[in-house]
Design brief:
about 250 residues; mainly alpha; about 0% strand; elongated
Length: about 250
């Protein structure tokens, strides 16, 4: 009996921690503390936006990181359909999970901004609506991955979701233009500009740290599943061998 494994698994990590992740984790923690200090204390209020600019120090990094995660998911999905290797499938899934996380934070701090600016937490304007649809699309992507199926079928079906959705974004241009703050255009300089870019850098490092850990967890989960399948196959073979034991019964013909 042979077992067909259409998605080859390369040697991988034996845990989620490494020297690189510890360094990235330390940088992330220090960076988040520094961002809080600069964003809440040292950076001055904006001439037009006042104290509300402090929300943007969080909003811009989270939405930028979320879009990066989803773009990587789409690219990794294309690579999976081409190469059919486990690495790209797990990378796409890991980025999608983190993208949903960062988009959740984006919508949360965006709602706080909306309450202060518009007087309501939510408005059904195009950018907010498409952002919500994008997040729901990737939640659906993660839900489809939970449907019991063989690895190749699961990877193929889920790979088509981000490609289809991102194709719409790429061809229609969903993201805002102009400044790093999009629809608002504060006159940023000095500590304000430094804090804005500090936030971007810190969240990109945080994303890299979380992605490495999440990918390794996904890889180890697949290996644990493989061990379970191998054990079940070995047990079934042992049962067959025992059932076909040709030992003659007592009193049988000689």
């Amino acid at each position: 009996m042979t077992v067909d494994n259409p998605v080859p698994a390369a040697p991988g990590p034996i845990s989620t921690a490494s020297t690189a992740t510890r360094v990235l984790g330390l940088i992330s923690i220090v960076g988040l503390v520094a961002l809080a200090v600069f964003g809440l204390v040292l950076s001055p209020p904006d001439a037009k936006l006042g104290e509300t600019i402090r929300i943007l120090y969080m909003h811009v990094p989270t939405v930028s990181t979320a879009y990066l995660a989803f773009v990587i998911t789409a690219v990794a999905s294309i690579a999976y359909l081409w190469k059919r290797t486990e690495f790209w499938d797990l990378l796409a899934a890991s980025c999608a999970e983190l993208g949903v996380l960062f988009f959740g934070l984006t919508i949360l701090n965006g709602m706080l901004w909306g309450k202060i600016t518009w007087g309501v937490f939510w408005r059904w304007e195009p950018r907010l609506t498409t952002t919500a649809v994008l997040m729901l699309t990737y939640i659906g992507y993660l839900a489809v991955r939970q449907i019991p199926n063989d690895t190749r079928t699961r990877g193929t079906i889920t790979a088509m979701i981000p490609i289809t959705h991102k194709a719409v974004d790429w061809w229609r241009g969903l993201h805002q233009e102009k400044t790093i703050f999009g629809t608002v255009n504060p006159d940023m300089r000095g500590l304000q500009l430094f804090t804005a870019y500090l936030g971007l850098v810190v969240f990109l490092v945080l994303f890299a740290w979380l992605l490495i850990h999440r990918f390794r967890v996904a890889w180890l989960t697949e290996r644990a599943a493989d061990v379970g399948v191998d054990a079940a196959i070995a047990e079934r073979r042992a049962e067959r061998a025992l059932g076909s034991d040709p030992t003659p019964s007592p009193g049988g013909a000689s």
